[in-house]
Design goal:
Residues 77-180 form the Fucosyltransferase N-terminal domain. With 493 residues, this protein is α/β, with parallel strands linked by helices. The chain has helices spanning 3-13, 15-19, 159-162, 187-191, 197-205, 224-231, 252-255, 265-271, 291-299, 330-341, 344-349, 362-370, 383-407, 445-468, 472-492; strands spanning 58-60, 72-74, 77-80, 93-97, 102-106, 117-123, 141-146, 167-170, 211-213, 237-239, 276-280, 302-306, 322-323. It folds into 2 domains: 77-179 and 382-491, no CATH class; 187-367, Rossmann fold (3-Layer(aba) Sandwich). The structure holds 2-acetamido-2-deoxy-beta-D-glucopyranose (3 copies).
Length: 493
């Protein structure tokens, strides 16, 4: 196992910060390469008075923007506990105006214990049980933004992990602020014309395979390479990424990911030569769909897909992608792709959604129409700001409900707690891409890495719950456990 990977695993466990003297901040394994190096703005030792928020923290505004509110009220504060995600510039605190009223968004950790600080916002990728802000304060909501797959953090795929939070924005339609279509700019993107069949037939004659695979992140929870390797025995696949590579992209510029990003027009034109794209997500979670699915559709290639089990709910019509799991074996799938490859009429049915009126899925159309944020659309807010306002509005409503209860406790009950649910991050235990888990040797890197990560996520969640509830027995057990793992890993380094 690579040393860097071990580090990442240890960081996931919180072991680096617990058992090792020095620590180098959160280690993330992002497919986009967005390595977060977030400085800790506060050493945690001193608590400064609430004036840290300065003028932005108090609404002493003469212009009564929200009739009914007091003239001089302290605005609720939303503290971004993951400061690297703070969506404002410059400064550490900013007044935000939302549908229900105003809040102060801050990344200044000194306000953490302030009574006005009503919500803590976390980014899932670098949320670590050992770094959680404890003790948890009863008046504060915890809000989670995690649009990524559990590849970065399996803690949140378990009940005890996700239920730590009150509000969520995840890829799931069930989350409080859902982001399932985070990679789909809109219907025009889907309608983009496909190259002609003649053009594609010409590429096939020149020796190109019917299927393309382009993946450089090889060892992932979904274990996709194991399936693709098997499929390659039955049908030609041109593979250009680092995983199962058997071909080079045509020019040095395209080969260099630094010069040709995945949105590079020349690269996209090249990829569109292929009639089918293998599109396998890095993890299997309900509603987790990425550019691996939408980009081939944009290019007019048919995705051969494995990912969200409910992907069909979001497709433009009921005949636009090929689902790997509909086939009993890679061989059967290969036969079907070969059949479509030789039968233009049947193949073209998969691109019918590009015709006028071809997008018939009303659920998809409504979801695109009603989401308030945009994808690569400067005219719309992004979902980071959108979620921030969602939390602000939620907290203003919660304050109002608390005030109403305080005013007439006999008539108006205490507001119900709002707690996130496992459906907000529904990623079951990883299974092998091909074959059964029993057939795979214990030394297999996928088994060693992802199955362990998955169950360690559960341990973290349970440990954190215990710490919040001050269960010392459970806590001690957890630290002993971490220590044992640390020693074991250290021996293997
Ligand atoms: C797909 O939709 C069409 C038109 O609504 C319908 O006639 C057909 O039965 C559907 N096919 C499947 C496999 O659901
Ligand atoms: C937030 O969630 C926790 C469970 O993790 C719960 O105990 C608490 O009451 C919730 N708070 C609010 C304000 O809903
Ligand atoms: C602490 O956790 C353990 C193990 O989950 C449980 O058996 C025990 O009842 C808990 N103790 C308290 C005081 O909640």
């Amino acid at each position: 196992m690579a040393a860097s990977r071990t580090r990442a695993v240890l960081a996931t466990l919180g072991v680096l910060s617990v058992c090792a003297a020095s620590r180098s901040g959160p280690v993330t394994e992002g497919e986009t390469g967005g390595e977060a190096e977030w400085a800790e703005p506060w050493d945690g030792a001193v608590f400064r008075a609430p004036s840290a928020l300065g003028a932005v923290g108090v609404a002493r505004s003469p212009e009564t923007l929200w009739p009914g509110r007091e003239e001089a009220v302290d605005l609720p504060v939303l503290l971004w506990w993951s400061p690297g995600l703070f969506p404002h510039f410059p400064g550490d605190s900013e007044r935000i105006e939302c549908a229900r009223g105003a809040c102060v968004a801050s990344r200044d950790r000194r306000v953490r214990r302030d009574s006005r600080t009503r919500a803590l916002l976390f980014y899932g990728t670098d949320f670590r049980a050992s770094e959680a802000p404890l003790p948890r304060l009863a008046h504060q909501s915890w809000a989670l933004l995690h649009e990524e797959s559990p590849l970065n953090n399996f803690l949140l795929s378990h009940g005890p992990g996700i239920r730590l939070f009150n509000l969520t924005a995840t890829f799931s339609r069930h989350s409080d602020y859902p982001l399932p279509l985070q990679w789909l700019p809109g219907t025009a993107y889907l309608r983009h014309a496909a190259p002609s069949l003649q053009e594609r037939a010409e590429w096939r004659r020149r020796g190109y395979a019917p299927l393309l695979y382009l993946q450089s992140h090889c060892d992932v929870p979904a274990d996709r390479d194991r399936y693709v390797r098997e499929l390659m025995r039955y049908i030609p696949v041109d593979s250009y990424g680092k995983c199962l590579q058997n071909r080079e992209l045509p020019t040095p510029r395209l080969q260099d990911t630094a010069t040709a990003t995945t949105e590079d027009p020349e690269l996209l034109a090249f990829l569109s030569r292929y009639k089918f794209h293998l599109a396998l997500e890095n993890a299997i979670c309900d509603d987790y769909m990425t550019e691996k699915l939408w980009r081939p559709m944009h290019l007019g290639s048919v995705p051969v897909y494995r990912g969200s089990p409910s992907v069909s709910d979001w497709m433009p019509n009921n005949h636009s992608i090929i689902l790997i799991d509909d086939f009993e074996s890679p061989q059967k799938l290969a036969e079907f792709i070969d059949f479509l490859d030789k039968n233009d009429e049947e193949y073209m049915k998969y691109l019918a959604y590009k015709q006028p009126g071809g997008i018939t899925n009303q659920f998809l159309l409504d979801s695109l129409k009603h989401r308030e944020w945009g994808v690569n659309d400067p005219s719309l807010p992004n979902y980071l700001n959108g979620f921030e306002c969602f939390v602000c509005d939620h907290e203003l409503a919660r304050l109002d409900a608390e005030k109403a209860h305080a005013a007439s406790p006999g008539d108006i009950p205490v507001p119900e707690p709002h707690i996130a649910q496992p459906s907000h991050m529904d990623c079951p235990v990883p299974t092998p891409g091909f074959g059964s888990v029993e057939e795979i040797p214990e030394s297999d890197s996928w088994k060693e890495m992802w199955l362990q990560d998955y169950w360690q996520g559960l341990d973290q969640g349970e440990a954190l719950t215990a710490m919040i509830h001050n269960n010392e027995t459970q806590q001690r057990k957890f630290w002993d456990y971490l220590h044992a793992i640390f020693l074991k890993r250290n021996q293997n380094l």
